Each structure stands twice: as structure tokens, then as C-alpha cells.
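Review form for a predicted model. The reviewer records the input and the model, then writes brief findings.
Reviewer: anonymous (R2)
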Amino acid sequence: MEVAMGQYTSQGGITCWAICPIFKGIGVASIVIIQFLNYYYNIILAWAIFYMFKSFTRVLPWSHCDNSWNTPNCANFSLIADVRKENGTLIEIDGQNYTIIDGKVNGTKLVPAVIEFWERKVLKIHLSEGFDDLGGMNWEMVGCLFLAWVIIYFCIWKGVKSTGKVVYFTATFPYVLLTILMIRAVTLEGAKDGLIFYLKPNTTKLAESEVWMDAATQVFFSYSIGLGTWCALSSFNKFHHNFWR
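Model under review:
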């Protein structure tokens, strides 16, 4: 229906609803939702750009605890793995004895280095006492967010023609990255266990309604149903274009 409306009226997600004025609010509401989604996704892009810049080092900053933002409770993955295996035992770390009980070392829960990087370097939530305290500007993230908006602008600045060309890259490049990540993943220790967990589904989950609700939500979200996207895209079709095919 959205494709038909957009093609028939040659209008976008708001003005196409002029066909029935009482429904104009649907178009406005969809644009408001899309705007919030743009904020949401561009923040994620900013995080990805931030991680990309930080990965241009010989040693990844989230792989160890020797950074300025780390706390005494920080631990790398190998240490945390050892702690999870042992319980009620005494281990020696850097010449000192520690007791492990219920996954805690001397009563203190260890925090993975990657979590501290995320919370204390990327988000810097330790500088804020709550929602009422913004904690100042995170200038590194501001720069990454600005770069994300600039990239988006240059992807769409010439309208549907430039967007179509950009899609050739954005639709294929993720598969290249996934292939690289897959090759890297299967060479890591424990890859066999991960593959078994991935390929051996828990069929009992199919009896839970929440699983089907999440699946349906993802399908609707992936196809951008009700967000005005199809109206906007189909508005560029010729009036007699057979969109059913």
C-alpha cells in the first residue's frame, strides 16, 4: 500500500497522505520516528568510528589494563577465564595470593578490560552521577559523531542518484567484513564450541511467544514498514510502473 501511495501521488512520506487529509498525522509521526532513529543510528556510527580509530595501534587499548581509565578491579580475559574455572581455591597473581569464591577475587568482582574501555573511555559514565549530571562534553565522541553526519550528508547530498551509487558499496562491503571476521573467528581458541552453540539451536525457545514477537518486530523494522520510506522511494517510479513484479 505504501509503494502504491508513493507512486500514485509522487510525494514523500508526509505529503502522500494528502490523499486522505485526516491521516496526515501518520506522515508527520513517521518522520518524527525516523528522525529519532537517525539520532540513534548515527550515535552507533560514531561509536564504530571511535573504535576504528582506536584500533590503529599495535596493542588494542581494550585488551589490557594499563590505561589511564582502568581501575584496580580491571582484568584481562585470560585472568577472568581462570577465575571462572576456579572456585574456593587460592591462586597466585603477580606474586600475591588471592582467594576465589563465587567468581570474586578476595570478595571483589573483576571487570573485563573491554567493559572498562566501553564504560570509562567511550561513554565515560564514571564522570556522571546520574541522568541529571551530563558530565561535560566528550570531545572525542563529538568529533566522531560530526564525522558520521558528514559521511551521511555526502551519501545523500545529490538525492536518489547518489544514494543508489552508495548502495553498491554499503550493500556489498559488509559481506567482505563478515568474511574476514569469520576467517579470523574460526582460527581462535574455542571456535569449535562457538560454532556448535551457533549451529545447534534451542528448539524449546520456539514455544515462547516473546521469540516470535521479536522476530516479527525485526521483520517490520527491516522493511521499514509504516515509516514512510517506501512512499518516498516509490515516488520516483513512473506512474504506470508495475511494482507488483
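Findings: The longest strand covers residues 96-101.
Further findings: Residues 24-54 form the longest helix (31 residues).
Recommendation: see findings above.
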